[in-house]
Specification:
Mean pLDDT: 94
Helix content: 25-40%
Bound molecules: 5'-deoxyadenosine, iron/sulfur cluster
Number of strands: 21
Largest sheet: 6 strands, parallel
Shape: globular
Number of helices: 14
Radius of gyration: 23 Å
Length: about 475
């Protein structure tokens, strides 16, 4: 008899930290049940959420392709269906449930379809329990720590045909050598750390993605070298807190050193996500200033401008320290463009607290921002706070914040008029097939007329029109 390993996630295990990290160089083996898969060898993946999830999707797809499967865009023609979920805010969960409901009809028509649900949401006990109780036709549920073993999970499912749940709550592993099916031939995400140790009081990520683990510098540089040889134009180094890179390795590596090594490889564009203000040090500022190919568009989440709220959030800096960092960055990086994340309506945020956030927005002069209304996440410390602020007040503040941010964004756009921007061309525009679309150095969406053979190249575009969240320009031939 097979041992029942369907254990639900456990918040105490999810809190565990400081276990020595094991680096595993995996030799991927394809089980014979997948080599001789009796149905069409096709799979479909739908991902929700952040860049880390999109990178995980590329690994899942890489493993399936390695086993001889083909990715399809039509869910109806796929033998294996993956939903890769997000848990950071409640609306991400709602979207998933809508899609899972639609799958019932597909499964009824063909009971051999294998439906897999993975990702952060599966690491939460209550969401998982709800899913198991409501969507009984799901085949495999796996968490953020089981991606490397997906082929073995499929093999196990094929032999039992019973719902399989694999969601260990934490991991001390970094798995290398996994195949990858990259979604772009010219821009790539490269993981540098996994997990997060910050435990901001509103955030579920440290529980869903586990303890912070850095990849070895040599393994990251090997992956970057491969991308360079394959002519990738833009790479983004990824971690929940890139500034923590190397701290767990205790071999002298840190993010400034890593970024400098990557910059020396001469990629046209290098970005990194996400930075944590109090760990953003002067060595890093110097490296960014020194290399032209490191993007001067930097995402530096502040979350709030109130010291009371920052403290309640467990953020380890003050409003003044954040603004001082911005000043030091601007002194050395004159063409810096800052982007940020802001949460409105953290429990018991007062009008004065909110005004502090507006004041910080004025002073920091963000070129772009992602704004969120606080969403209560189970098992996080903030979820226990009795909140006296109404949802209507939060929505009203949110609108005031967006209005102020839009004034700053418009000011940036006004300065962009008639300027030359370097655009990495991604595709034909979704709205207008006569136009191409791409992103400039500042992550701004730019549309312009041009030939499709420019896709994948960096071109110069003169900006002519602004539409707040995108710009329109003219291609400049050289
Ligand atoms: N509610 C609202 N926004 C959140 N974020 C993280 N957790 C929550 C939450 N519980 C936001 C933060 C973070 C971004 C990725 O998502 O601003 O930087
Ligand atoms: Fe969440 Fe804070 Fe970690 Fe970012 S730094 S992932 S907000 S706990």
């Amino acid at each position: 008899m097979r041992e029942n390993k369907n254990i639900l996630p456990n918040i105490n295990d999810a809190r565990l930290r400081n276990r020595p990290v094991k680096i595993i160089y995996k030799d991927v083996q394809v089980p014979s049940s997948l080599l001789n898969f009796p149905y069409p060898k096709t799979f479909y993946i739908k991902t929700y959420g952040c860049q880390a999830n999109y990178r995980d999707e590329e690994t899942i797809a890489g493993l399936l392709c390695y086993a001889g499967f083909k990715r399809v865009d039509n869910i109806q023609t796929a033998s294996i269906i993956f939903f890769n979920t997000c848990a950071v805010r409640e609306n991400a969960e709602q979207k998933l449930f809508g899609h899972l409901g639609e799958l019932k009809a597909i499964k009824q028509k063909d009971k051999n379809k294998i439906i897999c649900v993975s990702g952060c949401m599966m690491q939460e006990r209550e969401s998982l329990q709800f899913l198991v109780d409501t969507y009984k036709y799901v085949s495999i549920i796996f968490g953020t720590h089981n991606i490397a073993s997906i082929l073995d999970l499929l093999d196990e499912y094929l032999s039992t045909k019973k719902m399989l749940i694999r969601v260990p709550s934490n991991s001390d592993e970094v798995v290398e050598n996994l195949p990858s099916y990259r979604s772009s031939l010219f821009k790539a995400f490269v993981n540098i750390t996994y997990g997060c140790n910050k435990f901001c009081t509103y955030c579920v990520v440290p529980y869903t993605r586990g303890q912070e683990r850095s990849r070895l510098m040599e393994d990251i540089l090997k992956e970057c070298r491969f991308l360079k040889e394959n002519d990738y134009q833009e790479i983004t180094l990824l971690g929940q807190n890139v500034n923590a890179y190397g701290k767990d390795l205790k071999d002298g590596s840190n993010f400034a050193k890593l970024l400098e090594e990557v910059a020396k490889m001469n990629f046209p564009r290098i970005k990194f996500l996400t930075s944590y203000p109090s760990e953003f040090d002067d060595d890093l500022i110097d490296v960014i200033a020194k290399y032209d190919n490191i993007s001067k568009y930097i995402h530096l989440p502040v979350q709030s401008g109130s010291n009371v709220i920052l403290q309640a959030m467990g953020r380890r800096y003050s409003k003044e320290a954040y603004l001082d960092l911005v000043k030091r960055m601007r002194a050395k990086i004159p063409n810096l463009r800052l982007s940020t994340d802001i949460i409105v309506g953290f429990p018991n945020e007062s009008e004065e607290d909110f005004l502090e956030t507006l004041d910080l927005v004025q002073k920091a002069d963000f070129a772009s921002a992602f704004t969120f209304i606080y969403s209560k996440r189970k098992d996080t410390p903030a979820a226990k706070i009795v909140d006296k602020v109404s949802y209507e007040t939060k929505v009203e503040r949110f609108k005031r914040l967006v209005k102020l941010l839009e004034q700053h964004i418009s000011a940036y756009d006004a300065k962009a008029m008639n300027q030359l921007h370097h655009v990495l061309v991604e595709s034909v525009s979704e709205k207008d097939p006569t136009m191409l679309s791409g992103y400039d150095e500042d992550n701004k969406l730019i549309h312009f007329k041009g030939d499709t053979n420019l896709i994948g190249k960096i071109v110069k575009v003169k900006i002519k029109e602004s539409h707040m969240y995108s710009l329109i320009g003219e291609l400049i031939d050289e």
